Known about the structure:
Layout: H1 8-12, E1 19-31, E2 35-39, E3 47-50, H2 58-61, E4 69-78, E5 86-97, H3 113-118, H4 127-149, E6 153-154, E7 160-161, E8 173-174, E9 201-203, H5 208-218, E10 220-228, E11 241-250, H6 254-275, H7 277-291, H8 304-313, E12 317-320, H9 321-329, H10 332-335, H11 351-361, E13 366-372, E14 388-396, E15 400-407, H12 412-421, H13 430-437, E16 443-449, H14 450-458
Parallel strand pairs: 3-5, 6-10, 12-13
Antiparallel strand pairs: 1-2, 1-4, 2-3, 4-5, 7-9, 8-9, 10-11, 11-16, 13-14, 14-15, 15-16
Helix pairs in contact: 4-6, 4-7, 4-14, 6-8
Bound molecules: 4-amino-1,4-dioxobutan-2-aminium adenosine-5'-monophosphate and magnesium ion (MG).
Amino acid sequence: MRKQPQRIAELLESPRTNIPVVTAGWVKTFRNDRFIALNDGSTLENLQLVIDPEKYPEDIRKKITTGAAVYAEGELVPSPGKGQAVEVQVEKLEILGEADAETYPIQPKRHSLEFLREKAHLRGRTTLFGAIMRVRSRLAYAIHTYFQEKGFIYLHTPIITAIDAEGAGQMFQVTTLDLENPPRNEEGKVDYKKDFFGKKANLTVSGQLEAETYAMALGQVYTFGPTFRAENSNTTRHLAEFWMVEPEVAFLDLHGNMDLAEDFVKYIIRDVMKERPKDLEFLEKRLLQEEKNLPQAKRSPMPLREKLQFVLDNRFVRITYTEAIEILRNSKPFKKKKFQYPVEWGLDLQSEHERYLVEKHFKSPVIIYDYPARIKAFYMRLNDDGKTVRAMDVLFPGIGEIIGGSQREERPDVLLKKMEEMGIDPEELWWYVDLRRYGTAYHSGFGLGFERMVQFVTGMGNIRDVIPFPRYPKNAEF
Ligand code: 4AD
Ligand code: MG
């Protein structure tokens, strides 16, 4: 009869020793025929199991290899060795599942991130991916805690949607039609009336528009779910499937929205620093190690935890788009023609511009607001100048845009005019327009790219390494 194993994180913190314990996990290393370093994923630290080689003959011992699953009962005792406070004197050991040392890919040595991406089903067993996923989990928890404690209502917006007006990127189509032989209408076009939903449907790019409807009923809501964008961006900042956190608040203007965004990201960073200190310490060391051979200019300007503390200690810089353009046009790289893309009022900021502002000019998170109407979505509230909208982007060092948001256009006439200008059929979004007809009020919201936040907190350079199974062009393995 097996007993329910305790989590290694708890055993390592146990205030009592010389007590019977039960543990199970995967072998990290086995040395001197005697010492097993065991990990169960609850913490990055291993639990040392000590076995008596007399009791376990060669043919059993040779099955204790890296990656094997084992179950053990024994006594938790103070450890005489260095490196751990306690260890387990094993009384009963069972090898649950062997891991053939010839073929098991996760050996106790450094593997490249590219290699591990191909072994995404096993990379969670590495110290690095264990740390990343625990940090990710805690961030998700902190997000819910933050909003729940502030009285926000968690709203589940649909994943399948018929809206294709958001303009947030290419969408993935959802259909049950026979693609080899689709039904056609009189004009010879595919007849979506015969499709599952009776119209063309897609995977959502954002829950915002639906969240707005409930913000105008419940006051403060947030969504936190998967979003999908079929843009063919093979970058270290884009995924085809990513998670987005989108609060939406009635009776909140753009400046209140910036305050909320800043308070929110500081809260979740503070929480994860408090709750996952060992994982962050490990991630910090990894980053230092990884950047050791880079020239100074390419290294992170601060160690990971100092960077996080810096974000907590400083108020985010807030500038208008117009001010940002001015700063950029007066900058050295602009004057020396070092920017690849033009800097001109009316054009969108490229990531090289955003990075200059955040990393070189201000050396701090920056919120840019009041963007030209032409480069932003139809739903953003028009300013009195008639040229700019109440948009805001939060830019983070090393990441670029981490949050995008706005105050929404609440005036029906202005909204309809904007939709017309942008070629969006108000009939298709009749319910969205309805909100402006019945009890309309000023309101705001934003979207935080969850993986970009996990990247920032873990210091991982590639977004594909902060989600268990990344989805990107030509990759949907696992
Ligand atoms: O700026 P975006 O497109 O904003 C919206 O979708 C709004 N509807 C949000 C709102 O106001 N409720 O996306 C928001 C954030 C970006 O700032 C970025 O962090 C992240 O989502 N993001 C991505 N993250 C990973 N992969 C992608 N392809 C992403 N596209 C956007
Ligand atoms: Mg954006």
